[in-house]
Design goal:
The chain has 393 residues and is an alpha/beta fold. The protein has twelve helices and 21 strands. The termini are far apart. The structure holds pyridoxal-5'-phosphate. Pyridoxal-5'-phosphate binds next to β10.
């Protein structure tokens, strides 16, 4: 077993993401994210807290968080305590709001790390009282449910919760917040109702003697459409990543995420040749097929089988056959004839490309429409297997 003549395998230390062996990468344009931040801030004319939950919608929370704080974000919002801890470990000292659940001793961990927990349920008050007594003072944001029916103290319970909070001298309710369910829907009436309930909630707090320094309610769509609901700051996520949350209002935005790979193999096959698992596509004529090293394990949805288009030499080509776990096939017949296609040529699945056959852009919105989902899910789906590389202009 222990062959002294065999040298130990040489395993390089954990590769830096820039040293990815496979050419499949997500390129993140921090300059575009900063520019989007400036456009959003100018458009809404209020403070902006940047939402970087879910690894900044797949873009990388630490890098994006740093870029956005340097661009002027007054705070960062995450969903999980774990996400907040990641930012703190990276040395980001800006205010961080933990918007979703603080499980088990999550309040303790959040407070110890200088994160701001959101109180959304009466059941959290006992823990809050305990932590606040230990700490001297704990600052929290209080969330009310004005119509999302997901998280937040209901208006029915609010007076009782406010009374208890008022009796905790060590707890400072720094802000009152809510979340809109329909801000990106054509009909604005539901959001108007939510805004009215939020104002009612503020009055309930005041009656209990609680005067939050700040109020916030808007996500990206809300921030663009409901000027009177911007309050003290807005919490924007998707717009900062260059996706318009509502097509009819808002500033110009630039996509920041591109998903790129390169042709792994090429073959010309005769008419009648089936492609990939289950022969889901059969070539109708002589076809040049390019195999690309990206599959559903990377977040390139299997639903995109024979559906998606990609860019090769700046021109569009169609994915044919079933997307498999690690690979997909692209019909590059037309481009091969006019511009030539070689192994190693860049293939863009999301983002822009300029080449000898044209210039194109594939947005997350396009992929989402083909998959039957929303652009948020397209961006979040790109898996950990795809290294993120950062470009800063
Ligand atoms: C995700 C989230 C946001 C940001 O929403 P976008 O539509 O991405 O701007 C704001 N507030 C809360 C509570 C959220 O969960």
């Amino acid at each position: 077993m222990n062959d002294p003549h065999r040298s130990a395998p040489s395993i390089p230390p954990k590769a830096h993401i820039d040293e990815a062996v496979r050419p499949t990468v997500a390129e993140i344009d921090l300059g575009a994210i900063r520019a989007n931040f400036r456009s959003v801030a100018a458009y809404v004319g209020a403070d902006v807290w940047a939402v970087v939950k879910a690894d900044a919608y797949g873009h990388g929370a630490v890098e994006v968080g740093r870029a956005l704080v340097s661009a002027g974000a007054k705070g960062l919002c995450v969903a999980l305590v774990e996400e907040g801890l990641e930012l703190r470990r990276a040395g980001i000292s800006a205010p961080v709001l933990v918007m979703s659940g603080v499980y088990r001793d999550g309040i303790d961990e959040a407070v110890d790390a200088g994160l701001t927990p959101v109180i959304y349920d009466r059941a959290q008050l006992a823990d809050l009282r305990r932590v606040a007594q230990r700490e001297g003072v704990v600052r929290v944001h209080l969330k009310v449910d004005t119509g999302m029916s997901r998280l937040g103290v209901t208006l029915r319970e609010l007076a009782a919760v406010a009374e208890q909070l008022a009796s905790m001298p060590h707890v400072k309710v720094e802000a009152l917040m809510t979340h809109f369910a329909n801000a990106d829907c054509d009909d604005a009436s539901y959001t108007d109702q939510q805004i009215a309930r939020f104002d009612e909630a503020l009055a309930v707090l005041r009656r209990a003697g609680i005067e939050p320094e700040r109020r916030h309610a808007c996500n990206s769509a809300g921030a663009f459409r409901f000027a009177h609901a911007r309050y003290d700051f807005v919490r924007t996520g998707i717009a900062l990543y260059g996706v318009a949350p509502f097509p009819h209002d808002g500033p110009a935005l630039m996509p920041a995420f591109s998903l790129r790979t390169a042709v792994l193999a090429l073959r010309e096959v005769p008419a009648g040749t089936p492609v990939g698992y289950a022969g889901a596509h059969v070539c109708a004529q002589t076809t040049v097929l390019a195999t690309v090293p990206i599959g559903y394990a990377d977040g390139f949805f299997r639903r995109l089988s024979s559906e998606a288009e990609v860019l090769v030499k700046g021109a569009r080509a169609r994915v044919v056959g079933n997307v498999s776990m690690d690979m997909a096939s692209v019909d590059v017949t037309a481009i091969a004839r006019t511009a030539g296609v070689a192994v190693g040529d860049e293939v863009v699945l999301l983002g822009s490309q300029v080449g000898s056959a044209g210039a194109g852009l594939i947005r997350a919105e396009e992929i989402a429409a083909r998959v039957g989902t929303i652009p948020y899910e397209v961006l979040c789906a790109v898996s950990r297997r795809v290294p993120r590389q950062y470009r800063d202009r």
